[in-house]
């Protein structure tokens, strides 16, 4: 299998408010988008982030060649338990997935 980071143009994660995170997968072209969109399931992403699949929101933006996931933060941004105030490290976990 091939890692997502080897197919995608860019993978980034960021805050979507103090309670949510967003992970964007920029595919670059239609072929990469088709491969990534079909190769990653919402169940896989939910398992990776250890959340209930019903809590995960998926957006397939074919015109932009982007697959986007939004998920609840593991803890509220800025609390003592928050180890990533900006949510940037979550992209690294997804980048290592096989597609």
User: How are the strands of the largest sheet arranged?
Assistant: 1-2-4-3
Main sheet summary: 4 strands, antiparallel
* Strand/helix succession: HEEHHEEH
Mean pLDDT: 96
Ends apart, CA distance between termini? 6 Å
Structural shape: elongated
Task: Enumerate the spans where pLDDT stays under 50 for 5 or more consecutive residues.
Answer: none
- Specify the number of helices: 4
The strand count comes to 4
Task: Write down the domain tally.
Answer: 1
The percent range for strand residues is 25-35%
Describe the structure.
With 99 residues, the protein is an alpha+beta fold. It has one domain. The protein is built from four helices and four strands; from the N terminus they run H-E-E-H-H-E-E-H. A four-stranded antiparallel β-sheet has the order 1-2-4-3. A hairpin with a 4-residue loop joins strand 3 and strand 4. The longest helix is centred in the middle third of the chain and has 10 residues. The chain is elongated. The relative contact order is 0.29. The mean pLDDT is 96.
């Amino acid at each position: 299998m091939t890692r997502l980071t080897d197919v995608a143009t860019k993978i980034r994660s960021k805050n979507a408010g103090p309670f949510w995170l967003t992970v964007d997968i920029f595919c670059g072209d239609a072929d990469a988008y088709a491969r990534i969109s079909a190769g990653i399931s919402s169940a896989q992403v939910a398992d990776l982030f250890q959340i209930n699949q019903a809590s995960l929101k998926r957006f397939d933006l074919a015109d932009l060649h982007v697959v986007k996931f939004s998920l609840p933060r593991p803890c509220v941004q800025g609390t003592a338990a928050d180890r990533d105030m900006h949510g940037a490290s979550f992209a690294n976990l997804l980048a290592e997935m096989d597609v």
